[in-house]
Amino acid sequence: MKHKETNMHAPEAVVVACDLITPYGLGIDACWNGLLSGKTAINPLNRFDTEAFQTKKAATIAELKTGQSDSLVMQMLKPLLKKASAIIPKDALLILATTTGEIDILEKQVLSGKGNANESAPGCLLSKVQCLSGIKSPGIIISAACTSSSSAIAQASAMIRSKEHDCALIVACDIVSEFVFAGFSSLMALDKDTARPFDKNRRGLSLGEAAGFVLVMSKERALQEKRFIIGEIAGWGLTNDANHMTGPSRDGGGLALAMRKALRSANISENVVGCIAAHGTGTIYNDAMEMKAFKSVFTSKAVPTYSIKGGIGHTMGAAGLVEVIVALQSLRKKLVPPTVNLRVADNEAEGWVSNEQCAFNNPVTISINAGFGGVNSALILKKCDKQQL
Amino acid sequence: MIISGIGWIAKEKYGCVKRKIRRDYTDIKSLHSKLQNESVFLYPVKNFGRFDITSKMACCAGALALHDAGIKYSEKRKQDIAIIGTNADGCLKSNLNYFEDYVQTGRKLARGNLFIYTLPSSPLAEASIHFGFQGPLLYIGFPQKQIPSLLQYAEGIISRKEASTVVAMKVGKNKAVCFVMKKEEDASSKRI
After folding, report:
1. pLDDT single digits (tens) B93-121
2. What is the pLDDT of residue A5?
3. Nearest-CB residue to A138 (from B107, B111, B143)
4. What domain range is B102 assigned to?
């Protein structure tokens, strides 16, 4: 891998394929239509006993079954990657993004003494994903809390721009497990009912699960191979609050810095951005911090903003990738999806968020994530001239 | 690119490469005290006692490497420095500690203070909070040749101008190594 200086004629990083499975079902249309319906996929949870916890609800994928030979993550990834293996170049850089991966393997060993917890280490999952994808080189894992997959997309795009690679497959996954559910409950971070991002009466997040992939290429290679171009990853910014392990910086300074870096990286002004795909977890502090950051960057007018976490919950390490896929669909349809479960917008979010879909014209979206440890990410997504989904 | 500082911790020994420091310690508590007394830590590490062992090692190794590179840091005056880390198994031991504790106490209430270390990036986050690093923070798992791969990745971050300085570490329960990497013209120190 040779590092080359970036220049004005650096390759553009474009998305040429993507797919996902979410609590709305398998595929992009299922997720998109679910969000547009305004109905939440956060429902009573029966995967494990929730009696002792803050809530009994989460957004899970009905088809996933515990006690199978495959982990829950592999049950999500197998159908996705088998279907896509023919279109994945074998020379792509593989990046796996996850926070807890196959944590159900560790749960099984601790709870029943069966299996081997060592096999829950992310390296084991990376090998399995490599086999499923058919990619030759073993790849890498990127983990940065709830910015894991957006950070992975940012890194892949940066490597394409600097000509270190011309193709990368980013695979993201995380599940709703007792392990994670009990932890978030202990932090009093969960809404008793369902998450209501940017709502005046929001009380916390809802957990969700998802898996997906994004295939990113240099535009040059995409055109050579006559690939459909879905959209462009035009810029990115990764920062850290350096403030607190579980709480965001109250002033939103770290996130605002990530957004400014992303705009600079895309070489565009904030006035060009037509839509914000927010992190919007539904916790009091996260959503307030985000609004402060948005208002410090977009000073001249309110920008249409939405969160998908009232629909599919917070899918942790997979959240960023799922949100990129939804944002690309939103760019193609020229529609800002509704913020599901929003009833009365918080004072700070009024005029920015809505529980109804709306049209937008500027074909540029900034996609935001933030996570434990104070990590922040911002991606600039653009509609391309040539695109098809 | 040059490596402007290296800090290391082995079983009962720690040191800095450029400054040719090599000293003894007995356990992580004594290492922490020594690094404070020697002003390797420029100010106390808040809540050090509640960190998991990997986070403690990450903070100590980071402080040694920054000391070796002659970089002053402050939690108030934050710097655009990236922090990246790797190891063999993510946070497997912290995951087991947390979940075994939860099961042993009746599966009713988990300990939040154990849960926060069940992310591979948590030790890097504790270090970045102490040192005031505002650049990218990434745990990267490499299937093989972890240290050369980590250094190559750090070099990429600098050449892509994502940060001008990268603190890159491989941290385990009882050994750690941390590198400070900069672009050559930015580095005031000699090549190691």
Report:
1. 999 999 999 999 999 999 999 999 999 99
2. 45
3. B143
4. 2-186
Chain B residues with beta carbon closer than 8 angstroms to that of A110: 96, 99-100, 103
CATH number at residue B122: 3.40.47.10
The residues, any chain, with a CB within 8 Å of residue A183's CB and separated by 6 or more, are B98, B110, B112, B115, B118
Q: Which residues contact A209 (CB under 8 A, 6 or more apart)?
A: A23, A58, A59, A60, A61, A64, A72, A76, A174, A175, A176, A313, A315, A318
Looking at the domain assignment, is residue B191 inside a domain? no
* pLDDT tens per residue across span A79-122: 999 999 999 999 999 999 999 999 999 999 999 999 999 999 99
Q: What is the mean pLDDT of chain A?
A: 95
Most B CBs within 10 A among A146, A243, A245, A316, hence the mutation to make, goes to A245
Domains and CATH numbers, chain A: 13-224 (3.40.47.10), 233-382 (3.40.47.10)
For residue A243, what is the nearest residue in chain B, using CA coordinates? Answer: B129
Total domain count for chain B?
1
Q: What is the amino acid identity at position A232?
A: E
> Which of the four pLDDT bands, split at 50, 70 and 90, describes residue A1?
very low
Domain-embedded: residue B27: yes
Q: How many Å lie between the alpha carbon of A350 and the closest alpha carbon of chain B?
A: 30
In angstroms, rounded to a whole number, what is the distance separating the alpha carbons of residues A248 and A94? 30
What integer pLDDT is reported at residue A8 of this predicted model? 56
